[in-house]
Amino acid sequence: MDYHILREIADSWVLLAMFVFFIGVIAWAFRPGSRAEHRDTANSIFRNEDKPAADAADPDDAEVKEART
Fold first, then answer.
1. What is the largest CA-CA distance in the chain?
2. What residue spans define the domains of the chain?
3. pTM value?
């Protein structure tokens, strides 16, 4: 294949394929019913956190000292 033929294919069909893919991604992201899924995903890091983690039982523990200094 010649460079010019590949260039013409890239300028037309590959550009069209990338545009269709882009529109498909946008349509998928903003599809009906996806708002609840996006909200659930955004709030997943806060799930099951009612209080801070408890300190170790022994304050003289070496790992606890390293973490506090």
1. 74
2. 1-46
3. 0.52
- What is the DSSP track for 7-32? HHHIIIIIHHHHHHHHHHHHHHHT-T
Q: Note whether 38 and 31 are within 8 A (CB).
A: no
DSSP category for residue 55: P
Q: Please write the tens of the pLDDT for every residue from 11-32.
A: 888 889 999 999 999 999 999 9
For 56, list phi and psi in degrees, rounded to 5. Answer: -65, 155
Residue bearing tokens 């394929």: 17
How far apart CA 39 and CA 45 sit, in angstroms, is 11
